[in-house]
Amino acid sequence: MSLSLYQRLAISLVLVFMLILGVFYWWSSELHTRTRLEAEQRLHLNLAAHLVHDNPLLADGVYDYQGLENLFHTLMLLGPSFEFYYLDPNGKILTYSAKPDKIRRAAVSLTPISQLLEHPDTVPVLGDDPRNPLGQKIFSAAPVNKDGNLQGYLYMIIGGEAYDSVFAKVWESTALQQLALWVATTLFFLLIVLLGLFRFFTRPLQKLTVTMQEFRANAQVLKPEQCTSQNHSEVHQLGCAFQEMAAQINAQFEKMRQLDEQRRILLADLSHDLRTPLANLQGYIETLALNEQSLSESERRRFVEVSLKNARNLKRLIDQIFELAYLEGGQITLSQEAFPLGELLYDVVAKFALSAGKKGVELHIFPEHCGCQVFADIAKLERVLTNLLENALRHTPSGGRINIRLVLRDGKVRVEVQDTGVGIGQNELAYIFDARYRASNSQEDRTLHTGLGLAISKKLMALLDSELKVQSELGKGTCFSFELKQASY
To answer: Where is the Histidine kinase domain (predicted)?
Structure first.
């Protein structure tokens, strides 16, 4: 059976508590018993010696054993907690006041007696109990001499059988039972309090475990708790850290799911775009192969030109697909250097001058003479400017203008590509940089374009540590802008 952490802690606490209670009870009992025995033995240490000195029977040597037995009987009546025995020099019991069947030893060991007589400060010293063959008790002893010769010993047990009997009855009394019950109740209540504290401290950990199990089963946190910095509990902080981690995992998982969905859509669109020029190319080549003899020279030339156009469009589409894939995979390396931005702008504008003139669109750079230098990758920047001008020219009708404006501010150069084209609706601006996205009012032309230019430009500017931004108003034109670091001279 699998036990929870709280159950294991509770069982361990109960066992440890019982062990500590047992050890404490044993230790306190031993300490109490030893202290009581030492105190009683010290109190009656010289009692046997006084009896030997003051009693004529013992002081002159013992010959009247019957009289000595009567003396012991009288002394035991006066002191019920004492037992008196007269021993010979070898420890044999000669005289006592008790029924013969109560005496279970014929002799006692003299070693404890000698130890007590020679070293009285070593109390408590236990001697043999004549009424218990295996028991030992504290005692008082004194030698009995006559004319300098040892006659025997007065051996006096302190706390005899009568004492033990009375003590047992007192222990069984109601008052002591109530005291023991009160102590046991107090200890039980303490145990319950400790178990409650364990429950209180382990409950957050149990909740965290449930949350982790739910996350493992559903890959999401169902009921996130409020995380506050004022709570210094390690378990609470651990739970907050786990919830933050789970939220990040969920966000990344959702982002990956969206990217995967976008890639599937992009793949489907690109497959369609690839199929169109490929089908045209195949059709014209098959026509040339089948009807080569019947076609005139001009028709063959036109078929070849159309095939080349479709091949170039196909190559351009494939190149942009690979470029976007490299950008997303982080496989593009930068070669940044300082160069004059004005020269690059005029070179790029020169590439579109002829097509802009045929369409009736004016191209202008402001200011006309710009000597500022920037620090960037010239090839990547040329690719971005080419995409932006191509996109602006495609959506600017005849008679329109495309202005490239440079603004110097705070050590940076702001580049703006502004056209007077059809513009983009505000509800579509958020999607303009998505791959294959085309605005609803985009201009149709005969030039095949993949719809990847703005997505590629956005990623290229991110590599150049800049952000490509867009502002547009429907029917009035669009302005793309980004900032570059100005190179120091």
So the answer is: 269-488
Per-residue tokens: 444: 């149709």
Chain centroid to CA 366: how far?
58
Tell me the one-letter amino acid at 351.
Answer: K
Angle between helices 297-328 and 234-290 (to 10 degrees): 170
CA distances (Å), origin 460, targets 283, 347, 408: 37, 19, 22
Rama region for 147: left / alpha / beta (φ>0; ψ in -120 to 50; rest): left
For the chain, the three-class secondary structure string (H helix, E strand, C coil) is CCCCHHHHHHHHHHHHHHHHHHHHHHHHHHHHHHHHHHHHHHHCCCHHHHHHHHCHHHHCCCCCHHHHHHHHHHHHHHCCCEEEEEECCCCEEEEECCCHHHCCCCECCCHHHHHHHHCHHHCCCEEECCCCCCCEEEEEEEEEEECCEEEEEEEEEECCHHHHHHHHHHHCCHHHHHHHHHHHHHHHHHHHHHHHHHHHHHHHHHHHHHHHHHHHHHCCCCCCCCCCCCCCCHHHHHHHHHHHHHHHHHHHHHHHHHHHHHHHHHHHHHHHHHHHHHHHHHHHHHHHHHCCCCCCHHHHHHHHHHHHHHHHHHHHHHHHHHHHHHHHCCCCCCCCEEEEHHHHHHHHHHHHHHHHHHHCCEEEEECCCCCCEEEECHHHHHHHHHHHHHHHHHCCCCCCEEEEEEEEECCEEEEEEEECCCCCCCCCHHHCCCCCCCCCCCCCCCCCCCCCHHHHHHHHHHHCCCCCEEEEECCCEEEEEEEEEECCC
Q: And the tokens for 324?
A: 């976007």
At residue 277, the pLDDT reads 73
Burial class (CB in 10 A: 0-12, 13-18, 19+), 198: middle
pLDDT digits (tens, 9 = 90+) for 231-255: 556 666 777 777 777 778 778 888 8
Q: Which residues pair with 419 in a beta bridge?
A: 402
The candidate with the shortest Cα–Cα distance to 318, out of 450, 439, 123, 172, is 450
Question: pLDDT for 333-359, tens place per residue?
Answer: 788 899 999 899 999 999 899 999 999
Cα gap 379→428, rounded to integer Å: 30
User: What domains appear along the chain, each with residue ranges and CATH number?
Assistant: 44-171 (3.30.450), 234-328 (1.10.287.130), 337-485 (3.30.565.10)
Q: What is the pTM of this model?
A: 0.47
**Residue 392's pLDDT band (cuts 50, 70, 90):** very high
d(CA 99, CA 95): 11
